[in-house]
Amino acid sequence: MFAQGPPIGSVVTLRLPCPPPYDWVSLRAFLAKRAISGVESAEAGDRTYARTVCIGGRSGIVAVVFGDDALHATLHGVDSSAGPEIAARLHRLFDCDADPVAIAACLSRDPALAGLVAARPGLRLPGAWDPFETGCRAILGQQVSVSAAIRLAAKLVAAFGTRLPEPTGTLTHVFPTPAQLVEADVALALNMPRSRGAAIRALAAAALADPDLFAPAETVEDAVLRFTAIRGIGPWTAQYIAMRALKLPDALPVGDVGLLRALETGTGRPSPAALLVRAEAWRPFRAYAAQHLWAADEVLPREG
Question: Among 75, 198, 215, 272, which has the highest number of CB atoms less than 10 A from its own CB?
Fold first, then answer.
């Protein structure tokens, strides 16, 4: 747990304003549920999200809290000159530049979403600290539950990540880089299908070959084409990467079971095709609609 004390080293603080309303509670809960053991910490009862980072070859820890319409980040062990890069990454991760008023006005036109938007004003779209890490998460999440995907990610980190020189509580490793995974036998280490391990290696190879792999895309369609060209990455994974790593506000993983389940009525769930038609009304903020539906789905009662 990060509360056990910060690591020894330089300390830098940043304040990042966020346009209100800002739903820190929901965003932190989303990250907490998906926190990778060893890399991230968002303990119950704590208001902080903390994670390991590596900037310019130097590893450290970033801890973030929210208050007074701003994120307050404390950076341990990183060089002060890295402040602007870290601020930019945090802006993307915590969606600081969104326009919550415009998003709410658009999505509230759908009666099924209006109540969700009213229940979570200022809900943000979680981004990515490291786009490659998020791509690996998406691959590990193919056809398994969130909890299963996070267990696999923790195994990946333990097997191939870089251990911090001074671990702090549960924060012990930096997520592996493309160079560390491009030749790794991920499937064997994680005891998972070889095709999924091959997809992670293929993503690592693509990231090494193309420094602009995670650069902004003109359209969602361009992003999907870019990532589905990598063997083992299908449309759902590509859309998820577009949402979180590329921060495309209109991305939508149409076949996601959580989205379909959240829209279930007395007559059943919509088909992916029906969802796609309905989602036309959510443009250009389909990704935010998905985030609202995921948040609603996570609190639905489950049988058993």
Answer: 75
Examine the residue annotation and report whether 250 is marked as an active-site residue of this protein: no
- Rounded to whole angstroms, the Cα distance separating 224 from 207 reads 15
Q: Are 159 and 277 in contact (CB under 8 A)?
A: no
Residues listed for the chain: 304
Give which of 244, 225, 245, 257 is closest to 288, Cα–Cα.
Answer: 244
Where are the chain's structural domains? 2-95
With 0.90 as the threshold, say if the pTM is over it: yes
CATH topology for the 2-95 domain: TATA-Binding Protein (3.30.310)
pLDDT of residue 44: 73
Confidence label for 301 from pLDDT (cuts 50, 70 and 90): low
How far, in Å, CA of 289 to CA of 231, rounded? 29
pLDDT at 196 over 80: yes
Q: Which helix (H) or strand (E) holds 294?
A: helix 286-297
Is the distance from CB of 117 to CB of 23 less than 8 angstroms? no
Q: Using CA atoms, how far apart are residues 297 and 20, in angstroms rounded to an integer?
A: 25
